[in-house]
Fold this sequence. Notes:
- By secondary structure, the protein is mainly beta.
- It is built from one helix and eleven strands; from the N terminus they run H-E-E-E-E-E-E-E-E-E-E-E.
- The protein is elongated, with a radius of gyration of 28 Å.
Amino acid sequence: MNKIAFIVATLFVFSLHAQKITPTVIANAGNVVKNATHSLEWTLGEFMTETLKNSSGSITQGFHQANLTVVALDEVQIVGLDVFPNPVSTTLTIKNQSEEDLKFQISHITGVSVFTDKILRGTESLNFANYPAGVYILSFENSKGIKTFKIEKQ
């Protein structure tokens, strides 16, 4: 009888260990990058999320969300800088009435740099006639930081 009790107890202990469930993710693609203090994990093709909210904020856990959004950029205000018209078809006008000369860069929305130059105080026109239709990022840089504009070319 003691042998039977021992066998039943041993099977019970091993069955407890067998019930351990490890979370797994099934996705099309993804990666995990870790260092001593941070972890960046992403997956592609997941369909489930859970978002918990309270009065001080929200957190998303589980599967990742489909929409990627930039939540913060450290941008500066450049007083006296104006860019028009937007959307543009042929000529984009830049008015620089700020305190200093500015470096600027035009990049395609994919991140490919299209044009880089410097603008002095005053008004300058940029020819957009030869650029294909799409969305471009116009970035101005001064000694304090960067200011960006989203430009739509028709």
